[in-house]
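Late entry, adenosine-5'-triphosphate complex.
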Amino acid sequence: MTRETLSCEKVALAYRDGERTTYALREVSLSLPPGKFYGIMGPSGSGKSSLLYLLSGLKRPTGGAVTLGSTPLSQLPDAELMRLRRTRFGFVFQQPFLLTYLTALENIVVAAPKPDAAARQKAQELLESLGLASMAGKLPGQLSGGERQRVAVARALINDPEILFADEPTAALDQTNGHRVIEALAAWRSKGTVIVVTHDAGMLTGADQLIQLRDGILSTEH
Ligand SMILES: Nc1ncnc2c1ncn2[C@@H]1O[C@H](COP(=O)(O)OP(=O)(O)OP(=O)(O)O)[C@@H](O)[C@H]1O
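Prediction complete; structure with ligand written out below:
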């Protein structure tokens, strides 16, 4: 797996609403070397999700640039950007978005490039590493919210993502299950970069670096 530094240089994200322009982010610059667990924090509306969307190529900045190694993410044509996202990034969102008619194992395998025996084996290993070995054959409706979210983490990991992005992955969970999901995400730093957005500072005590946003700009950085 290639492991490159993800960086952004003076990125901005402006939303036009008729005459009005709202800046979700303005002039944010960051350099995120690989293999670390980064936490993006800040109050509601501070631009956390916007920053995650820009860093992961889900949105394009209205100013500045996002770069992965020497690849200018924000300048790639749509198809190339989509391919890069699919092959090098993994995503976990607030809701797990599992297919209700597939088992936990099948929900993971469908995200693999080829749904073959090797992918099934890997999906089973991921479930085991996340404490869900016995849940492989269960449907999402038979799992708890925390278990469903850990299945979503396993699905995000099936392609060995160089960067794992998570947007408020614990917002729908209680503290105990939230911490288990964060532990599962954080463990990936031994292989790739982990970037987690949350408004819950208690979830980021194990982060290597905290990125604090306020009103669309960086407020502190350690
Ligand atoms: N589609 C949109 N159109 C207009 N303004 C938007 C849009 N999406 C976000 N914004 C604004 O951009 C700012 C940053 O939003 P963002 O979702 O990035 O913040 P956040 O820190 O993730 O908030 P939360 O914790 O509430 O999810 C907010 O003022 C928000 O109202």
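Residues 117-129 form the longest helix (13 residues). Will revisit in the morning.
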